[in-house]
Specification:
123 residues, mainly alpha, Cytochrome Bc1 Complex, Chain D, domain 2, 55% helix, elongated
């Protein structure tokens, strides 16, 4: 009888643990998806990121052609931190760029830059 109770208790504990582990990625993915959606909103906002003023982005309207089209970003920027640094301050790598330094000029907050980076990285 004690063995049976022990087996039931162990089974329930393992099932609970597996259930908790199974939910964690969903919660992380939901938060990540929310950040990506917010990043897209900021990137397309003509008063904030305004990425469409210079770049062609899938799903955007009235895109500019001054900057390169934002496609295949994972191939172009295998390291997401390099992409973030480019968005934060493109003048670090190219002092002659016309892309404004969003971070140093305070156009975007660090949180907004992180969200835009997550969105752009999905393209």
């Amino acid at each position: 009888m004690r063995l049976k109770a022990h087996l039931i208790k162990t089974t329930v504990s393992v099932a609970t643990l597996i259930g908790c582990l199974g939910l964690t990625p969903l919660a992380v993915n939901a938060a990540e998806d929310a950040d990506i959606a917010e990043g897209k909103k900021i990137a397309f906002d003509r008063k904030k990121g305004n990425c469409l003023a210079c770049h062609m982005i899938e799903g955007g309207t009235l895109a500019g052609n001054i900057g390169p089209p934002l496609v295949a970003m994972k191939a172009r920027f295998p390291d997401v931190e390099v992409l973030r640094a480019q968005i934060y301050d493109a003048t670090e790598k190219n002092p002659n760029t016309i892309m404004i330094p969003f971070g140093p000029h305070g156009v975007l907050t660090d949180s907004e830059i992180d969200k835009i980076t997550k969105f752009i990285y999905t393209l």
